[in-house]
Amino acid sequence: MARPIWFFLQHFAFFMFLNVIVAYASRPHGSHRPHQEPSYLKFVVNATDFPSEDYYDYIIVGGGTAGCPLAATLSSRFRVLVIERGGIAYGNRNLMTKEGFLATLMDVNSFDSPTQAFTSEDGVPNVRGRILGGSSAINAGFYSRADEDFYRKTSVNWDFRMVNESYEWVEKAIVFRPELRTWQSAVRDGLLQAGVDPYNGFSFDHVVGTKIGGSTFDTLGRRHSAADLFKYAKPVNVKVVTHANVERILVGSSMPSAVSRQSAMGVVFRDRIGMYHHALLREHGEVILSAGAIGSPQLLLLSGIGPRPYLSSWGIPVAHHLPYVGQYLYDNPRNGISIVPPIPLEHSLIQVVGITESGAYIEAASNVIPFASPARSVFIRTPSAPLYLTVATLMEKTVGPASAGSLRLASTDVKVNPIVRFNYFSNPVDVQRCVNGTRMIGDILRTRSMEDFKFQGWFGSKDFRFVGPALPVDQSNYEEMADFCRRTVSTIWHYHGGCIMGKVVDADFRVIGIDAIRVVDGSTFGISPGTNPQATLMMLGRYVGLKMMKDRKDYKMID
């Protein structure tokens, strides 16, 4: 359905604002304290320096949110290779500070930017992480453990003692308690005044009510990502190769017999100058895909693992028929409002969350944007110092979601984004949840904690100054609220699925029907874990690594 012209004008204006952010965030700021050089740089190499052939116990494709902790864990006993298509975040101010969050999302190119942009067939812009640390190196830093429903709806036989120990392993290294300032404090109070109770204080756990979650930004505003979990790695056993694009998994027969199964033998990848390299498996080794909900199903398809008729239509030799690769792809809708307040606010990313029982999570952010006049005027003197505009946002994330989409190839070149459709709000359950969430935003805006963010109008009235669409006036009208959800939908970057458990991988994350390949990332999820997935993904990397080592305890260790 065609969208009205104001929709495009609104988004054009929004992107113009973000262009200003990019220009601002790209400037050096003398007050920023640099990170100490991370220890993992000792075992990170550019792909051009990798030999043409080498052997490993485990080859992990994707140094992202799950791949880094998985590699760090396995390296305690095995020789591990991590292959990352991007570079490293260290030294990039936009990546290393919360002020650079929006600039990182917008400052993209087709080749090597830390974020790779794509737009789904639904017309919603989105991004993928292309950096060591994956999405944990570009996200808003919020950290909160999974909800109980997530564990119930997966077919994993979870060892909850190990789950908790894995979370704690992550939290001890890279998670901090945030300091609430003006906007986040007001949102916390507004949630409680609107009835999102009880108040649970600071907690990593998923609990109904209002809480302060953890943050991967420390007290100085510096980012810590999954890459920093390499502090736990055994350096002599791990190598991380950057700027390397894996083109396919090498698959062959596991033994020369009529009943043999196909098995992974390694991967082939190219470096930045186009040279090929082969990473091959040692005995009992495995290839593990941790390339995310876009990259993992894409690589399976390019390797000939997927629906036979579809692969044949691309001329890809079929290694293993697996019909559901790329199916059951999900993205949680994000809807909300943004205001320009009459008082200055600080930069704040997500720190407070309202966990409702009506299918929505409420979160907030505020950003300080330098504002420049579009043209010089003879009547206005250009100020010597920049002017700033504050934008404060309230948003809701739809739980689940229930609406499912799919992924298909756009090219046989792995560097080209696949074609993605999420089918936002195709299931009426998601519409109802969004209406519940946006109504809650309306309730929060009517609380006394929001009064300071209104402008004084004529005759003593006070109201908000909205950037973009405001909520419908009649929020009791379901159809108007549902229309608001559909026409203002955007992403919260929590997409998942495409290698769904039970259809593409089994309960041990092994690819069904083929040996020596696992998928360990969010592509195996059929539901987003709680308010924000990064905590669960980092836990998952650690957890699966521990389980794999337990399963291999009788095998020969590293030579």
From TrEMBL:
<feature type="binding site">
    <location>
        <position position="522"/>
    </location>
    <ligand>
        <name>FAD</name>
    </ligand>
</feature>
<dbReference type="InterPro" id="IPR007867">
    <property type="entry name" value="GMC_OxRtase_C"/>
</dbReference>
<dbReference type="GO" id="GO:0016614">
    <property type="term" value="F:oxidoreductase activity, acting on CH-OH group of donors"/>
</dbReference>
<keyword id="KW-0732">Signal</keyword>
<feature type="binding site">
    <location>
        <begin position="533"/>
        <end position="534"/>
    </location>
    <ligand>
        <name>FAD</name>
    </ligand>
</feature>
<dbReference type="GO" id="GO:0050660">
    <property type="term" value="F:flavin adenine dinucleotide binding"/>
</dbReference>
<dbReference type="InterPro" id="IPR051871">
    <property type="entry name" value="GMC_Oxidoreductase-Related"/>
</dbReference>
<keyword id="KW-1015">Disulfide bond</keyword>
<keyword id="KW-0274">FAD</keyword>
<dbReference type="InterPro" id="IPR000172">
    <property type="entry name" value="GMC_OxRdtase_N"/>
</dbReference>
<feature type="binding site">
    <location>
        <begin position="493"/>
        <end position="494"/>
    </location>
    <ligand>
        <name>FAD</name>
    </ligand>
</feature>
<feature type="binding site">
    <location>
        <position position="246"/>
    </location>
    <ligand>
        <name>FAD</name>
    </ligand>
</feature>
<feature type="disulfide bond">
    <location>
        <begin position="434"/>
        <end position="485"/>
    </location>
</feature>
<protein>
    <recommendedName>
        <fullName>Glucose-methanol-choline oxidoreductase N-terminal domain-containing protein</fullName>
    </recommendedName>
</protein>
<feature type="signal peptide">
    <location>
        <begin position="1"/>
        <end position="25"/>
    </location>
</feature>
<dbReference type="InterPro" id="IPR036188">
    <property type="entry name" value="FAD/NAD-bd_sf"/>
</dbReference>
<keyword id="KW-0285">Flavoprotein</keyword>
<dbReference type="InterPro" id="IPR012132">
    <property type="entry name" value="GMC_OxRdtase"/>
</dbReference>
<comment type="similarity">
    <text>Belongs to the GMC oxidoreductase family.</text>
</comment>
<dbReference type="Pfam" id="PF05199">
    <property type="entry name" value="GMC_oxred_C"/>
</dbReference>
<dbReference type="Pfam" id="PF00732">
    <property type="entry name" value="GMC_oxred_N"/>
</dbReference>
<feature type="domain" description="Glucose-methanol-choline oxidoreductase N-terminal">
    <location>
        <begin position="292"/>
        <end position="306"/>
    </location>
</feature>
